[in-house]
Amino acid sequence: MTQKPVAQHEAPDVFAPAELGPVTLRNRTIKAATYEGMSHKSLVTDRLIDFHVQHAAGGVGMTTVAYCAVAPEGRTDRHQILWRPEALPGLRKLTDAVHAEGAAISAQIGHAGPVGNPKANGAPALSPSRHFHKTTLSFTKVATRDDLARIVAAHGDAATMAAEAGFDAVEVHLGHNYLASSFLSPKLNHRTDEYGGSLENRARLALEMVQAVRRAVGDRIAIIAKLNMDDGYPGGFWLDEAIVVAQWLEQSGAVDALEMTAGSSLLNPMYLFKGDAPLHEFAGVMPEPLKTGIKLVGSRFLHSYPYRDGYLLEDAKQIRSHVKLPMILLGGITDRQIMDTAMAEGFEFVALGRALLREPDLINRIQADASTRSLCNHNNKCMTKIYGGTRCVLVPQSDGSPAAQAPAADVSQVVEAAERLEARA
Beta strands of 194-326 (E only): which ranges? Predict the structure, then answer.
């Protein structure tokens, strides 16, 4: 039997204003969190402000400042924004500039856990159970109950500072095998206490994080949870468990919207994306002998995955059918057609990453001409540019000069690059 098509009037207009918790966005499009590589000494720079202003001027309803760490050891890069009082003046300048363009602004908050960079942070990475990190050649530190209590409280503190800085929303990072996600993973979590074993126990930390955020900010700003649907490796967190956790997040009353994602920055970096794995370009920013090693064996851990528009849609629909919370669809949002499909399937918002790196004004252009399609070709070479500021390699620099030579990277930075550009575009 042929399924009856959804009538156009039954789905919301992606370009109409929409409520996200206590916030009203001018439309239903969101610039997804893609690590900008433009902060310095964990503080906002003018370049970071210009980056987000460009996307705000380009028409998005809300732009997202990517990964802002709640604790020093929770960073994957020493320059990532760290929530502390010294950061507030720059953050206020950033939010004011975005608001002046008519867009809202969200801050992604979280703790990297086992994905953290122990060398840069001067502290071991934390994980639910002891784990040997092949890219940093070091063991993680098992997080104690005191560690977890401190980090949960730090999420509340970060949300408070985000509200004080003028952010309209926070996105709590529960994906990609960052700390909360690593606790959800049966492969990574072998604990026998109240944070391990059953799904209820493995989800405890994630729920404590969002509840701490809600207690801290109440209804002053919107709270989004970014949750994995699958980790991308055997024995990890998968869709059937993600459905249950999504329901628990809804029942907690601590979340205004869900954004579903997939993949592991720890065990399968390129599963975060679809498209090419830029092995040659990664090798180009490596010192020897890593350069040769990447060329010879890089394909063993940097896999290419076929791209298709809306590539997370089918799995996300499984979550959609089990929760009533507003949901944000990301993954291959490239044109008006896939946006309208998302709306017809019951999603309230769409999020774009790589497509907006390629064309920051894409939203305005699609609104003006529904036949417009993103020019992004999913080569993923933008990942290798994060050391000097994430950008699309197909877009000439504003001064017409060639790209600056990136400094040599260590192996851990390959994983960092994949995680930093975590949005699906």
Answer: 222-228, 257-261
Distance CA 231, CA 265 (A): 9
Q: Which helix (H) or strand (E) holds 296?
A: helix 290-297
Q: Is residue 290 part of a domain?
A: no
Query: With contact defined as beta carbons under 8 Å apart, do 250 and 325 qualify?
Result: yes
Query: Strand, coil or helix: what is 66?
Result: strand
CB atoms within 10 A of CB 41: 11
Give the domain extent around 388: 8-276+306-420
CB-based contacts of 222, cutoff 8 Å, min separation 6: 20, 21, 22, 23, 106, 168, 169, 170, 256, 257
Rounded to 5 degrees, what are φ and ψ at 64?
-115, 125
Number of domains in the chain: 1
- Per-residue model confidence (pLDDT) at position 421: 44
How large is the angle between the packed helices 46-57 and 88-100, nearest 10 degrees? 20
Instruction: Give the DSSP letter of residue 105.
Output: E
- Say what the pLDDT of residue 171 is: 99
**298 located within any domain:** no
Structure tokens that stand for 218 in this block:
């109440």
The answer to whether the pTM exceeds 0.85 is yes
Interaxial angle between packed helices 239-252 and 313-320, expressed in degrees from 0 to 180 and rounded to the nearest 10:
50
Half-sphere exposure for 139 (CA within 13 Å, toward CB): 5
* Whole-angstrom distance, CA of residue 72 vs CA of residue 74: 5
Q: Where are the beta strands (DSSP E) in 280-375?
A: 327-330, 349-352
Report the pLDDT value the prediction gives residue 85, as an integer from 0 to 100: 96
CA dihedral 270, 272, 274, 277 (to 10 degrees): -20
Residue closest to 324 by CA, chosen among 340, 341, 346: 346
User: Is the preceding peptide bond at 326 cis, omega within 30 degrees of 0?
Assistant: no
> In the structure encoding, which two tokens stand for residue 160, read together?
């408070």
239: three-class secondary structure by DSSP:
helix
Task: Please pick, among 178, 195, 311, 387, the residue that the annotation labels catalytic.
Answer: 178
In the residue annotation, 387 being an active-site residue is answered as no
Q: Is residue 137, in this structure, part of any structural domain at all?
A: yes
CATH number at residue 334: 3.20.20.70
In the chain (425 residues long), the average pLDDT of successive 10-residue segments reads 45 98 99 89 96 97 97 93 97 99 99 92 96 81 98 99 99 98 98 99 99 99 98 95 99 98 85 69 64 68 78 96 98 95 98 89 96 75 61 62 41 45 40
Residue 97 located in a structural domain: yes
- Tracing tokens 């310095």 back to the chain, one arrives at 40
Sequence letter at residue 248: W
Location of structure tokens 């042929």: 2
